[in-house]
Amino acid sequence: RLSNISLEIFRSELICVIGEVGSGKSSLLSAILGEMWEIENKDLSEFSDQLQSNPSMKASQQVLEISGSISYVQQNPWIQNKTIKDNICGLTDEAYEEEFKRNNQEYDEVIKICQLLPDLDILPSR
Asked: By residue range, what is the domain housing residue 16?
């Protein structure tokens, strides 16, 4: 169980979280990302929809200040058997045309920021 954690990371610092299996590494990162809540000492991350829609479920108070951005690589990659663009933009078959048009700018920005253009240029077709 994680409790009374204080963590300060300075700008441009690279942090690695290590520990034994089950020690709370993923829980710590999920909490930092705002994907895990604790209510009465029970992990309710799987009930996030109910927590957000039900005002009677109050999460424990957390003080979290993030300035800048956070990068996080999950243990299990989320890659679908679709195009590179579909994977980056999270496009589904429903309303594909509308989403495709709206996500062109987002896609181009991700490609630029991640410096993927040289990699994409060597592919036979894009």
From this structure: 1-77
Residue with tokens 């034994």, as numbered in its chain = 20
69/28 same-domain check: yes
> Quick check: 28 and 2 in contact, CB under 8 A?
yes
Residue 33 forms part of a structural domain:
yes
101 and 69 assigned to the same domain: no
pLDDT, tens digit (0-9, with 9 covering 90-100), for 43-71: 555 556 655 655 544 444 555 667 777 77
SS3 of 29-79: the string is: HHHHCCCCCEECCEECHHHHHHHHHCCCCCCCCCCCCCCCCCCCCCCCCCC
**Residue 35 predicted with pLDDT over 80:** no
CA distances from 10 to 13, 34, 66, 69, 81 (A): 6, 20, 11, 12, 38
CB 39 within 8 A of CB 57: yes
